[in-house]
Each structure stands twice: as structure tokens, then as C-alpha cells.
Specification:
6-stranded mixed beta sheet, 7 helices, globular
Length: 290
């Protein structure tokens, strides 16, 4: 039997959005959580599919896992969440950090959402506060609030593994941007240093990888590897240096391709906006707003 402090992790990569979805579980036939699921979305046609989630479900079923949780590290700006589809298939609860209300408030205004859209996180089944603990079968997990990329980012620490969302990328890619509404490079630096204070052998599972030419996508790096070589925040980089570099870098970045469809879906826990009178769902494109 696998020791309780060593969760098993299966990682699935969506090459279109460069997103990792992770299945963390205690043992075959045991219990699992799915972290950061992806709903396929074609921005040219507006069509959606569940190809990525079906691959994740195939792994879950092959290993006879009961899925207790669908964990969102934040309201993603680069892919649509497929949490509702996975919830219907597994009965799991959808959870995110409790500061999602701040993100919802900002984007309700930006997208001029329907008056009944609640900005209290109630679209999710559970909201985690910093330090909350929860079970995944034999595994004990803890939720950490790690703001900076957005005000609501969470990491989930489970034994010798941590699922860090968009705080960190692979060492040769660096860290997440901080120029979205509510982002703060000072906060991100402090969040990263909190993560890097964990034991050096801790496995940090990433939400994305954007590998340079010649390297295959990677899902995980240790604390030791990040401290030694992360191009933005390795040991020896001060907060002031990091903030200056991060802000200079962010000033050159375009908005993510899928930010407009993604955010208005993801603040609804992955649900599409309510259908209109003709039965169709519509996504809004605010003009000259970002």
C-alpha cells in the first residue's frame, strides 16, 4: 500500500491550451481529486467538446477511483473549465478558494452579467479558506491561499505533492503573469516563497507548461529545482528585483487567446451563461475593455 504521505498522480496534457489536468489519488480502487479540468473550446466556431475530460475519466475508471473533489486552483483565463461535466460523471464536489467573490465582482461588471449573477461564490459546491484541510480517501490535503496571479489563487498541498496552479511554471519558463484584474507581483513573490519553503523534495505540480523548443511538456518540478533555477524567482532574487522583472515582462504580453470566453464561464464554476429565449447560450465580447 502507498504511504499516506505519497499521493499517486496522473497528469493529462491538453496541447491546445498547454494545460495540465491532474488526477491525485490514494491508491487503485481508492479515492481521487481532479485538479483543473479542461473543456475543449474552438474559438473560431464556438463549439465545445469533452475530449480532455473523457481521457481523464478513462483513467479514473481504469483505476476504479471514486472522485471526491474537482479542485480549481483559480478562475482560469486560458481555458474553459469542464468541472460540471466531470461532476455529472462522478458526483464529485466542485471547489475553489473563497476569494473567488473578488474575481466575480470585477468580471460581473466587465461583462455586464445578468443582475441575478451572484458574486458570493455560491456557484461552487465548496469554498476553501487558507489552511482548510480536507480528505481524499486516505490522503489529507490542505488548501493554501497563494494570491498574486489573481486574488483568489489556491494551492493544494497533499503529502509530498503540491498543486500550485499558475503561481509557478517550469524553472526555464518562470512564473505567472500578474497584470490581470486584482493581480499583484508583490503578492505573487510572497506566495512563491511560501511554496518554496516546503521541503526541497516536495513535488510541485503545475497547471501549465510552455516548453522552449526541444523540450517536451513537463508537469512537475521539485522545490529544489525551482529554488536553484527558476528564471524569475530562484534563490537570491529579491522581492524588488522580481517585481521589476515581472512588471516589465507583463507589459509586453498580449491577453490570452481564450480569456474572454474562459473567465465568464469559469467564474460560474464552469457553467455556460443562462440560455436565452431561443435556447442557445451566448458568450459576450466586451469591446475595448481589456
Amino acid at each position: 500500500m502507498t504511504p499516506a504521505h505519497t499521493p499517486q498522480v496522473h497528469s493529462h496534457f491538453d496541447a491546445v491550451t498547454c494545460t495540465w489536468t491532474h488526477v491525485v489519488y490514494d491508491e487503485d480502487g481508492g479515492h481521487a481529486a481532479i485538479v483543473d479540468p479542461v473543456r475543449d473550446y474552438d474559438p473560431k466556431s464556438g463549439r465545445t467538446r469533452h475530449t480532455q475530460s473523457d481521457a481523464v475519466l478513462a483513467f479514473v475508471r481504469a483505476h476504479h477511483l471514486t472522485v471526491d473533489w474537482i479542485l480549481e486552483t483559480h478562475a482560469h483565463a486560458d481555458h474553459l473549465s469542464d468541472a460540471p461535466y466531470l461532476k455529472e460523471a462522478t458526483g464529485a464536489r466542485i471547489a475553489i478558494g473563497r476569494h473567488i467573490d473578488r474575481v466575480q465582482h470585477v468580471f460581473k461588471g466587465l461583462f455586464h452579467l445578468e443582475p441575478g449573477f451572484a458574486t458570493d461564490g455560491s456557484q461552487f459546491d465548496h469554498l476553501f479558506a487558507d489552511g482548510d484541510t480536507f480528505q481524499i480517501g486516505r490522503l489529507t490535503a490542505q488548501a493554501w491561499h497563494v494570491p498574486g496571479h489573481t486574488p483568489a489563487d489556491m494551492a493544494f498541498v497533499i503529502g509530498d505533492a503540491a498543486f500550485v496552479g499558475d503561481t509557478l511554471f517550469m524553472p526555464d519558463v518562470g512564473t505567472a503573469r500578474c497584470d490581470f484584474p486584482g493581480g499583484d507581483a508583490h503578492e505573487l513573490y510572497r506566495s512563491v516563497r511560501r511554496l518554496l519553503a516546503m521541503p526541497e523534495e516536495t513535488r510541485l505540480f503545475l497547471c501549465h507548461d510552455y516548453p522552449p523548443e526541444g523540450r517536451e511538456p513537463a508537469a512537475v518540478a521539485t522545490v529544489a529545482a525551482q529554488k536553484a533555477a527558476n528564471i524569475h524567482v530562484h534563490d537570491g532574487i529579491s522581492e524588488a528585483d522580481f517585481v521589476a522583472r515581472r512588471q516589465a515582462r507583463d507589459a509586453t504580453l498580449e491577453m490570452p487567446v481564450l480569456i474572454l470566453p474562459s473567465v465568464q464561464v469559469n467564474i460560474r464554476a464552469g457553467q455556460l451563461p443562462p440560455a436565452e429565449a431561443n435556447g442557445r447560450h451566448y458568450l459576450k465580447i466586451p469591446v475595448d475593455a481589456l
